[in-house]
Amino acid sequence: MIDVDSEGAIRTVTIDRPARRNALTEAGLEALERAIAGSDEPIIALRGAGPAFCAGADLSVVAELERDGAEAFARLGQRVARRIEDSDAIVVAEIDGPARGGGLELALACDVRVGTPDSTYGEPGATFGLFGAWGGTVRLPRVLGEGDALEFACTGRVVDAEEALRMGLLSRIEAEPRAVSEELAANETGALAVLKRRIRDDADRETQERREAEAFGELVDAHTGSLEGLLE
């Protein structure tokens, strides 16, 4: 269900279950977590096989769960999303086709979200009496703001790539999302991991600024003797 391929600085992680629009079971989530955790590459590209990015949780599995099992399934999805968010790698969601429910929630945990012009986005859970529980109620208001997050999730409406970009669900629209992963990989990748840690730091301002200065000093020290060429 999860395919992994590495080329240079980029690890490509593909959710490969196109017959189910790449919907994830417990086994699929666990395999996805292993694929993210096992990466030594500085860039991870997360994508879906076939015409969809990811439909989220496999509802045929959810329908068989009782309360405790449903809670455990939600906790597993949350854990995978945190694994994506906390990875040292820059994780790029390469989105083509529909990203729905948990699929959108996994994309929200990524550092960069790139969609094709044909990609679409929605949190449809409320339309059938549920909601996305893989960290969506935490991350969605961070991205959209509380009011827009409530409207988007509670209506269950689907938005196209242009509206997703305007709302902040997307970082960029590209016909070939891989171009952005390659653009990132062309940089000094050691600095990327530092930038991710600093930008995601949620400590108080004084602590953030101290850590920023320390990280800058470490990077300059690591590049002693190699920065002069930048002045030419």
From TrEMBL:
InterPro entries on file: ClpP/crotonase-like_dom_sf, Enoyl-CoA_hyd/isom_CS, Enoyl-CoA_hydra/iso
Record GO terms (molecular function): catalytic activity
Family: Belongs to the enoyl-CoA hydratase/isomerase family.
Protein's recorded name: Enoyl-CoA hydratase
Lineage: Archaea, Methanobacteriati, Methanobacteriota, Stenosarchaea group, Halobacteria
